[in-house]
Design a protein that fits this description.
By secondary structure, the protein is an alpha+beta fold. Helices cover 25% and strands 33% of the residues. The chain contains six helices and 14 strands.
């Protein structure tokens, strides 16, 4: 299914209106049914919906591997995904509306483990050059954003190469897509670097925690709650990655640099 559609619009410039053809992002509601029960309606882009569905179920804690899925079917014509999983869906689910584009939802935001005391813990470190390189590759792949400006993108890398790239009209959906594709490809994302085009919010950090991501970098800013979550979870949080500069909001000591600033 196509992700973008062309529309004839009127463009105002220098006092006059002219007809132009413009690509517009397609907003696709997908009704998710799990074990015969309507669970949620995901507002997303219409491509690779199997990755989206599986990643959503994984990051909500309903499945841990593909073995937990007994059957999966997506009907594009009716906008429905029907999934059967091992185990039962809880009768009562705490619903949280997220701040992501497309009115995202989550059923549970995990409480981040407190890793601030683990200063001696061995962990993967990334250099500023590796962050810049992955962000540049993200920008190069984001063709849809350049075409109409309505798509968010995200990618995961290991410091040497980009492993998974995803895009969607909702920035939270990009994490679901990454989680789903990683399951299908049997990729372990623990200790990896995540870059995103959109603002970092709590649901994105919660999902990154589940995936074992150790560094999140964005072209824009995090929220105050995100900074607190990242600090508690031991995640290095980087914002405003532009040109040859960025800002570090948590765990700057985890960056691989020749000189470290004094942390108050």
């Amino acid at each position: 299914m196509e992700q973008n559609r062309r529309h004839l619009v009127l463009r105002y410039k220098q006092g006059s209106l002219t007809h132009v053809e413009r690509q517009v992002v397609q907003e696709y509601p997908l009704r998710l049914e799990v074990n015969g029960r309507d669970l949620a309606t995901l507002i997303a882009s219409p491509h690779q919906l199997n990755f989206l569905v599986v990643g959503f179920l994984r990051l909500q804690g309903f499945i841990r591997s593909l073995d937990d899925i007994l059957s999966l079917g997506v009907c594009d014509d009716f906008g429905t995904a029907k999934v059967r999983i091992r185990g039962e869906v809880p009768e009562r689910l705490g619903l949280t509306l997220t701040s992501g584009c497309g009115s995202g939802i989550t059923f549970q935001l995990p409480t981040p483990p407190d890793k601030r005391a683990d200063s001696g813990e061995t962990r993967v470190r990334f250099t500023p050059q590796q962050i810049f390189a992955l962000m540049r590759e993200l920008a190069e792949r984001a063709e849809n954003y350049r075409a109409h400006g309505g798509i968010h993108s995200a990618a995961v890398g290991d410091g040497q190469q980009l492993l998974i790239y995803s895009e969607d009209l909702g920035r939270h959906n990009t994490l679901d897509r990454i989680a789903g594709e990683a399951l299908f490809k049997n990729l372990d994302l623990h200790g990896k670097l995540l870059v995103t085009s959109g603002r970092v919010s709590t649901e994105m950090v919660a999902k990154a925690i589940r995936l074992g991501i150790v560094l999140i970098a964005s072209r824009t800013s995090p929220t105050d709650m995100v900074i607190k979550m990242a600090e508690q979870a031991g995640i290095t949080l980087v914002g405003y990655v532009r040109g040859d500069a960025f800002e570090v909001y948590s765990h700057a000591q985890a960056l691989a640099m020749a000189a470290q600033p004094e942390i108050p």
